[in-house]
Each structure stands twice: as structure tokens, then as C-alpha cells.
Amino acid sequence: MFINVIGAGLAGCEAAYQIAQRGIEVKLYEMKPLKKSPAHHSDLFSELVCSNSFKADRVSSAAGLLKEEMRAFNSLLLEAADVARVPAGGALAVDRNIFSEFVTDKIKSHKNITVINDEIKEINRDEITIIATGPLTSDALAEYIQDNFGASLSFYDAAAPIVSFESIDMSKAFFESRYGKGDKTDYLNCPMNKDEYEVFYEALLNAERAPVHEFDVRDPKVYEGCMPIEVMYAFRTYEACRLNRP
């Protein structure tokens, strides 16, 4: 008996590892390095293409409690995160490369996991298969899922910009903890006074915007507990257009 897992991202690697740990053979299909999406840069598994933070680590929070539950089940991703941990106050953040290297080594060295580098465009319905390709599903497989299961895939995510430390004026920026948690050097803060913020705000409102499809703005949904300023502006623009207001 064997189980197919499509996608060697976070979910795919965790699923493959948990199955393999229970003595069942796994065929793990990953299209990298043969093919990559525009968001992919590394050939490693569980590549973090957005934020390197896994949110709160304290058990009194929902995110932290979930992590403790995953650790109790010997989660591969939490083991990798603990190895690759970097200072982040009360959050669990990781070094992207160390994290992905750890996961990749664990998966490739597991006796019950066979890694197959190939783009899967359809599944064999006679075999047990887990599709774990997430928001970076290839076009062909996404179309197959839509055609066979009656719905398209929808994901809401955002790119996390990377700022070079050398570009920061340290005569104005400073290190400090977040919400008084963690070490005082965990976060680099770049403060703005009112005038500087207003210049930034106007530049943001007048900046070039990426083209979006109609379904992207028809019914936008975001996690309101961490809403960035550009999203608030997008909502204002969306509402103005919807109500035909200037």
C-alpha cells in the first residue's frame, strides 16, 4: 500500500512525513525544480514565499495552542521551526533557508518516502491521493480540480517585502521588542512623524497598482486583525466604485 501526496510545500511535507512515520509508503510529487511558479525561487521543499513568521507562539493564543498540539503529534514543521527560530518577540519566526533545508533533508532521507519530480496534471482516482499544492497550484492541475470537483481555487495572500539592512538610516531607526515581549533587539523600528507619514500615505495612494481581475474585488475578504494601510485604502476605493462615489 502507498499514498500519493502532490506538492512538497508546508502541508504536503507534513502530510507525507506523518504518513511515512506510520509505516506507510509515500510517493511525494513535486514539480520543482523542473517547473516553478513566479513566486518560487528555491529548489528546496516547504519554501516560505511570503512571511517568515508563523504568528504567536504563546499557548494562551489560538495560534500558539495549535503549535503545541502539532508538537504533541511530532510535527515535522514545528521541529524545523524550532531549529530555524530567529528572534521575533512573542511570535515564532524562522530563518527561511535553514527551515526549508531541514524539512528537505528529513523528507528526502526518510525510508518510506519516494520523491518524484514531476508536474501532476490529473490524479488516478483508483489511488489514495492528497492534493496539497496550495495557492501555487499549476494551471493544469487547477483546471483539472475545477473541472472535476465543481469549484475553482481561491486564495488570499500578500507578498512580504524584504528591506536591505544597509538601506536603513540607523540614526533614525531603532531596535525594540514588540508589545513588550521578547528581547529588545527583536524588531527594527522605522518611525515616521506626521509629515513623513502623510507623504508616505499620498505616495501609496498614487503608486502604480498591479492589475486585478474582477473576482479579486467583487467581495474582498481580509483578516481584519492585521489589516495593512494599503488594504484599508483598497477597501475605500472599492466602496467608492461600488457606490459610484468619487
Features:
four-stranded parallel sheet; 246 residues; 9 strands; 8 helices
Average predicted confidence as pLDDT:
84
Low-confidence stretches: none
Strand content: 5-15%
The helix fraction, in percent, is 25-40%
Distance between the termini: 62 Å
H-E string: EHEEHHEEHEEHEEHHH
User: Within the largest sheet, what's the order of strands?
Assistant: 6-2-1-7
Radius of gyration: 21 Å
Largest sheet: 4 strands, parallel
Outline:
globular
Compute the number of helices. 8
Helix/strand class = alpha/beta
Number of strands: 9
Give the helix/strand layout.
Layout: E1 2-6, H1 10-21, E2 25-30, E3 53-56, H2 62-72, H3 76-83, E4 85-86, E5 91-94, H4 96-109, E6 113-117, E7 129-131, H5 139-149, E8 174-176, E9 187-189, H6 194-205, H7 214-218, H8 229-242
Parallel strand pairs: 1-2, 1-7, 2-6
Antiparallel strand pairs: 3-5, 4-5, 8-9
Helix pairs in contact: 3-4
